[in-house]
Amino acid sequence: IKRSRELKKLKLTEARLIGTKYVIPISIWLYNNKVAFMLWESETGILIENKGTADTFKNYFKVLWSASK
After folding, report:
1. Residue among 18, 13, 21, 23 at smallest CA distance from 69
2. Which of 29, 31, 33, 61 is the least buried, fewest Cβ under 10 Å from its Cβ?
3. Is 22 within 8 Å of 69 (Cβ atoms)?
4. Model confidence, pTM
5. Can you tell me the distance from the alpha carbon of 50 to that of 38, in angstroms, rounded to the nearest whole number?
């Protein structure tokens, strides 16, 4: 919730929350045909460059966005 409040203060930024039951302890970034996962606790990153995978995660984002507040 704290991070959401911080993000909402930024220009051109919109943040939504989904129930804490569904917390995902990683960051997922989508850009071009790439999906990047950042696992902050272990300082590990994974980059996948694949159009099908990127499209799948874009759809995943849309589902979560529409289910969030």
Report:
1. 18
2. 31
3. no
4. 0.71
5. 17
